[in-house]
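Go through this pair.

…
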Amino acid sequence: MSVAVILTLLASLNLAGNGADQIASWIFQSLLLVDGGLIIDDQVFTVRYVETAFTKSADAELRGLDVSALVRAARAAFSGWFHPGVNTRLILTTVGSLLVILLLALS
């Protein structure tokens, strides 16, 4: 919610025509764009990252876990709306950030 409040505040200030707020928008939108990319990477490669972490563990039982089955079970435990909601948020963050950056570049 804090990100939405910041975006709304920046949009309002930009519409008012304050140049300093455009700089803040450039910075914040760029951070959101990069952050969205990092989150997508973490979600796509979850199994690989967890396997790597478990392999480095001193705990033999942890190293022997079927990480793929563990991640599938964890994902299945979420509500049905969760994954579409997360995917929608990431798409809107990426597309929205690109759109705002493009509009700032054209202004």
User: Anything to note?
Assistant: The mean pLDDT is 86. The helical segments are 2-15, 19-44, 46-55, 60-63, 67-76, 82-106. The longest helix spans residues 19-44. The CA atoms of residues 59 and 78 lie 28 Å apart.
